[in-house]
Amino acid sequence: MSTVTTGTPYLEVEDLKVHFKTEDGIVKAVDGVSFSVERGKTLGIVGESGSGKSVTSLTLLGLHNMRATTVTGRASVGGTDVVAAPHSTVQKMRGKDMAMIFQDPLTALHPYYSIGRQIVEAYRIHHKVSKEVALKRAVEMLDRVGIPEPQRRVKQYPHEFSGGMRQRAMIAMALVNDPDLIIADEPTTALDVTVQAQILDLLGDLQKEFNSAIIMITHDLGVITQIADDVLVMYGGRAVEKGTVEQVLRKPHHPYTWGLLNSVPSLHGDASEDLKPIPGNPPSLLNVPSGCAFHPRCAHAMLGGDGPCAKIRPELEVVQGLKNHTVACHLSEAVRATISDEVIEKVDA
Amino acid sequence: MLRFVVRRLLLIVLTLTVVSFGTFMLFFAAPSDPARILCGTRCQPAQIEAVRDGLGLDRPIMTQYVEYMGGIFAGRTLGEGDWAKDCSAPCFGYSYTQNQEVSEIVARALPVSASVAIGAWIIQTLISVSSGVIAARKRGTAVDRGTIAATLIGGALPIYFVGPMLLLIFRYQLEILPQPSYTPLLDDPLAFAGGMIMPWATLAIVGFAFDARLSRSQMLETLDEDFIRTSRAKGLKDRVVFWRHALRASATPLATSAGLGLGGLLGGAVVTESIFGLNGLGKLSLDAITARNLPIVMATVLIAATFVVFGTFIVDMLYAAIDPRVRLS
Ligand SMILES: Nc1ncnc2c1ncn2[C@@H]1O[C@H](COP(=O)(O)OP(=O)(O)OP(=O)(O)O)[C@@H](O)[C@H]1O
Ligand code: SF4
Ligand SMILES: [Mg+2]
């Protein structure tokens, strides 16, 4: 493994746009997103359903639906711009430079091949070794991700594994080639809470061991707290707030982030009556609201008269001189800071 | 796996019992009087009565059914007294109009139909599955569109159009194919194939559309599955993803459809035989129905049912062989 930890991040995404042409019009699933992840670090991406999280990550591996799709911007993975690179280059990078862990390990594993065979295949794509050697490696990996009796389990089929074990197997397969970048798209959503915590621990341990960069996509701010270093909050295909976990979750500056925090059941206390889901529905990406896409649902929106919220699209701006904390909102910094404190006070109560 | 096979075999026995009993009831409850038909048109009532007695047609239907089924497995003596006839297993009764055991008549017709149906089935399956799968691989290209067009045309053509057209073109105009006929495969494989090629082609042209379209859509559906995305995410080449992972996952439904298609081909074989003048089960049963020759109708229905039921059995076994989830449950 390379030991570069500072300097250029392993992954750098700049102004990434993914637009799908459909019969109803252009779906702007991702509309100008920038972020970067260093080796050994984890970036959490949060947002409601349909905010473009999966499309963003699939695009990095070139796994999005290519039909009638326009991808623009830059996404440098270990120095190669995967947006501009030819298909064959990206295909060769998959599994080795960047690997992916999917949400539902039952449908994501091939039902007719044994777990062992699937891992062996993944290993042999990038290592010219015999099947026996690869099988040994598969058993090793299963053992490493905490699957008991790996010698026996390696011969079994996905349907013979429990949900948690399946996700461990999926992780073993994704990590078999020591990938530099791991993208996990809601890897624990399909699992129950205890298993979820175990899987996140496992990912954290493996990350220390392999020094890889991780993107963790989730709906769940709890997951972010547990595993991420940085957070990107997405709304309607764009980033609305970005910063370290400490900054975004302890000093949130965007009304949407406030909404997310308010709708999380408090970890301590029984504040269920205070639980307020964000009113309204996520925007249609076919027809994103003008100005700030969040304005139809925002309790602080300035709409009447000269109010800019429905007219001008806010760009990401630095918060309180903290260079890596940025937010896209027309509210003044002072107002945001006050409300932020109130929100956190309530969440902590 | 053994329990699975045994369970399926028991199910087959049950199915065939129900089918045979049902058919038996149907024919014997039918208004036509077997004794009258057997006796001939110039029979006196007294003579008919004698025939009925002699054949045991006056006994309870259940008894007759048990005797009939027993005859298939162990042989039996048909009728009494003057009418008594020895009929060895498998005994499907005696055709008085042809003065022959039904089993002999059927044994002559069966290989003809089996050759038409099985041969056409193999050809049709090969063509339809490969064209459907290739169309899916070449989705959106001229190859794909050409295949779809071919299935639309093929699927719309009736057997009684394609059969005579082939005959007209290849037998009479171009004179490159012989008149369809049946030569036993082992006697002369070339003559066998030459005599069968037009019936096969007819059935394959008419029947390939369904499985071709199914194969294509099945492959496209599989390509949308999560595990296909996973195999691409591993870094596999598109070619390998398609020809290994996707094809493997589609094999089960494709084999099912192909297997069930064999049953449908039997029906087509009946029509095809009469077009090409082949003396198979189709012609036999059609003639028997017109002549109300019940023993023969009964035998052909049973044979057809057995064919279909065992076809399904083979499909189930294939299923178990290729799907680990079926194998275990
Ligand atoms: N091939 C496509 N053609 C048209 N629209 C698409 C296509 N793929 C995705 N979309 C749309 O893009 C939007 C973003 O989808 P995406 O899967 O990235 O959301 P997400 O944030 O991952 O949501 P979830 O939390 O539900 O997984 C959705 O509205 C989706 O319908
Ligand atoms: S820009 Fe306006 S509408 Fe958008 S989040 Fe800020 S206050 Fe709300
Ligand atoms: Mg998603």
TrEMBL record, chain A:
Domain ABC transporter: 11-261
Main subcellular location of this protein, as a coarse class: membrane
Compartments in which it is found: Cell membrane
Top-level taxon of the source organism: Bacteria
Membrane-related topology note: Peripheral membrane protein
Gene Ontology molecular function: ATP binding; ATP hydrolysis activity
Homology family: Belongs to the ABC transporter superfamily.
Protein name, per record: Peptide/nickel transport system ATP-binding protein
Organism name: Phytomonospora endophytica
Source lineage: Bacteria, Bacillati, Actinomycetota, Actinomycetes, Micromonosporales
From TrEMBL, chain B:
Entry keyword ATP-binding: no
Keywords from the named record: Cell membrane, Membrane, Transmembrane, Transmembrane helix, Transport
Chief location bin: membrane
Coiled-coil residue spans: none
GO cellular component: plasma membrane
Keyword Nucleotide-binding appears in the UniProt entry: no
InterPro entries the UniProt entry points to: BPD_transp_1_N, MetI-like, MetI-like_sf
Domain ABC transmembrane type-1: 110-319
Protein name, per record: Peptide/nickel transport system permease protein
Species per Swiss-Prot/TrEMBL record: Phytomonospora endophytica
